[in-house]
Design goal:
This protein has about 375 residues and is of the alpha+beta class. The chain has eleven helices and 13 strands. The protein has a domain of about 150 residues: Thiolase/Chalcone synthase (Peroxisomal Thiolase, Chain A, domain 1, 3-Layer(aba) Sandwich), CATH 3.40.47. Helix 6 links the parallel strand 4 and strand 5. The structure holds coenzyme A.
């Protein structure tokens, strides 16, 4: 079995950013408009009036101060509350593929080897732009990579599922190097009219190159990868080709379950123990002392969840250097969160020091990737 290495990473950050103040102003304008338009139904008790959102709540509950988006004007337009992304002709690169290619090019440049050495492209993200042809194949074509590509969607856990797939391909000798991309236009499946969740997500794309260890010059040894799924309806998105029309859509758009919906408290209570136990068990099986992990690059879910998982894993209050948080600037970027954290904050390691990439989310699903600086 060949050993695998995380050889390089890349990041594409959209140009536009939305502050909590801007987001709350747009939501509150929408809510006021909704309440005025539905004054009769609200007065008769048929539907409930929408409550205003608040910056203070958002920062305290999530740790988020801003998020990047691919289209700010559409998201902040109280009459729209969704990104305005014109359809492109099929001859043009898709917007999701475009973001992935930008992140991939950065990773390939950092790798310092020709893209032709890549044998497979995985597009691992929480929502693909279309069912087929696979986004991964489009990215593969744009980069001039031979071999094969396919999409995989395990929601916020997609990146670690992609890394494990890549590591297993390397182990069995299927390919010598894998490019995994995580383009996330979360703003297109977030319900900006839902007060409970309108602040949660941001857009971004990340890329990771996994390579066989005996051909790698630097990077991070992958010590072990593990995946886990347990079915739950507590984070769900019902969008699909069977339900693209809905008679209630316009009237009760803030309750649309064809966008992201979650039972946030249940998610918190159920996912924190599941993920903490999984990390500790995997560390034990690998002979890694979790208290000696130099850094955690966790899925960027929300500050309270991330802090609690880190405390349980390290057995103490983590320092900001140990538990990397990029939520404040990027928000929850679904599959890309742990990779942004790793990409931006992986310096200062001596050879032999260990860290953990971990993602978790809808499914439920979770993945752990223990790495050691080479
Ligand atoms: N502005 C102001 N108040 C808000 C609000 C907003 N945008 N959204 C909710 N509230 C209010 C609620 O109405 C409620 O008021 P009440 O106590 O008077 O009923 C109060 O804040 C608490 O709401 P709740 O939804 O229970 O918040 P919470 O403290 O559980 O925090 C989450 C919400 C989502 C941040 C929290 O549950 C969480 O961190 N969950 C983990 C889920 C997660 O991160 N998922 C990402 C995918 S992995």
């Amino acid at each position: 079995m060949r050993q695998a290495v995380i050889a390089a990473t890349g990041l594409h950050t959209p140009a536009e950013s939305v502050s909590n103040a801007e987001l709350v102003a747009a939501f509150n304008a929408f809510a006021e408009r909704f309440n005025a338009q539905n004054a009769g139904a609200i007065a008769s008790g048929e539907i409930a009036a929408l409550e205003p959102s608040s910056e203070g709540f958002i920062e305290k509950a999530s740790g988020i101060k801003s998020r990047y988006v691919v289209n700010k004007a559409g998201v902040l337009d109280p009459a729209r509350m969704a990104p305005d992304l014109p359809e492109r002709p099929n001859e043009e690169l898709s917007i999701l593929a475009e973001m992935a290619v930008l992140a991939a090019r950065e990773a390939i440049a950092a790798w310092g080897k020709p893209a032709s050495l890549i044998g497979a492209v995985l597009c691992a993200a929480s929502n693909m732009q279309r069912p087929y042809p696979a986004m991964a194949v489009e990215v593969q074509g744009a980069l001039g990579v031979e071999g094969f590509g396919f999409d995989l969607n395990v929601a916020c856990s997609s990146a670690t599922f992609g890394i494990k797939t890549a590591v297993d391909y390397i182990a069995t000798g299927s390919v010598d190097a894998v490019l995994m991309v995580n383009p996330e236009i979360t703003s297109a499946h977030l319900n900006f009219r839902d007060r409970d969740s309108h602040f949660i997500f941001g857009d971004v794309a990340t890329a990771v190159i996994v390579e066989r260890a005996d051909q790698a010059t630097g990077g991070w040894d992958v010590l072990g990868t593990r995946l886990k799924t347990v079915f739950s309806n507590n984070i769900r998105n019902n969008f699909g080709f069977l339900n693209s029309t809905h008679p209630e859509r316009d009237r009760l758009a803030h309750q649309d379950d064809r966008l992201f919906v979650q039972q946030g408290r249940k998610v918190f209570k159920e996912v924190v123990p599941m993920v903490s136990a999984m990390i500790l068990e995997h560390a034990g099986d690998l002979g890694v002392d979790p208290r000696r992990l130099k850094r955690l690059w966790l899925h960027q879910a929300n500050i309270n969840m991330n802090d609690l998982i880190a405390r349980r894993v390290l057995g103490r209050e983590p320092t900001p250097e140990e538990n990397v948080i990029i939520l404040d600037e990027y928000a929850n970027t679904s599959s890309a969160g742990s990779i942004i954290a790793f990409h931006k904050h992986n310096s200062g390691f001596a050879p032999g020091e260990t860290g953990l990439l971990c993602s978790f989310g809808a499914g439920y699903s979770a993945g752990t990737v223990f790495v050691r600086k080479r």
